[in-house]
Amino acid sequence: MKTLIIVIHPDIRNSKINKRWIQELEKFPEKYHIHQLHEVYPDQKFDIEGEQKLIEEHDRIIFQFPFYWYHGPALLKRWMDEVLNYGWAYGNTSGYKLNGKKIAIAISLGLKEDEVRKGGPYKYSLEEMTRPFELTFGYVKADYRPLFAYYGMAYNPSEDWIEKSVPLYIDFLNQLHEAEDGAEAALLTGK
After folding, report:
1. Is the CB of residue 73 less than 8 Å from the CB of residue 116?
2. Residue in 112, 130, 132, 109 with CA at minimum distance from that of residue 120
3. pLDDT, position 119
């Protein structure tokens, strides 16, 4: 089954790293369904049922975005508020449509990795800063997975630096897929 990559970037045309990641993912249409919220909804008016159906059709979902101001782009928060609604994502017996779905975030940061370590200049680790995502997806009973982060875009946005991120991102996605396949195989074999 394909992995759904929900891209939230307010200026993808001028993006360096997120645009490059999309270009790489597009080489594997059999593996990835790329869904760019800003392109699909330039008016920011979501097709809620369409978004929910898309989520229901995928067991692995990655939210890809630049991380700034201790969160993702505003459209991501709006999407969560509107799409992850009561009765579908949580709240009654017919809810919890994300139950067991593997969800992770893949983020690009301007900061260096040592700047977002506990006790560093920002005082909090990246895991602490992204905790609201873990809490949100835990609340809707999704299987929140470890995040992928690529650091230092404000310091080194060279083509070489960006290209180094591509195999790391693809490896992250492959590991998410392999972990699922391994768990499924263990269930089938009883190991």
Report:
1. no
2. 112
3. 79
48: closest CA among 8, 3, 81? 81
Radius of gyration of the chain (CA): 17
pTM to 2 decimals?
0.92
Q: Which residues contact 177 (CB under 8 A, 6 or more apart)?
A: 3, 31, 60
- Full residue range of the structural domain in which residue 65 is found: 3-189
Closest CA relative to residue 150, chosen from 108, 105, 92, 93: 108
Check the CA dihedral 30-36-42-43 and report its sign: positive
DSSP assignment of 20-50 equals HHHHHHTT-TTTEEEEEHHHH-TT----HHH
Residues in a beta bridge with 66:
108
If one counts the domains in the chain, the total is 1
Q: Looking at residue 113, what DSSP letter applies?
A: G
Half-sphere exposure of 61 (CA within 13 A, CB side): 24
How far is the first Cα of the chain from the last one, in angstroms, to the nearest whole number? Answer: 23
Q: What is the DSSP letter of 70?
A: T
Least confident of 30-44, 61-75, 77-91, 111-125: 111-125
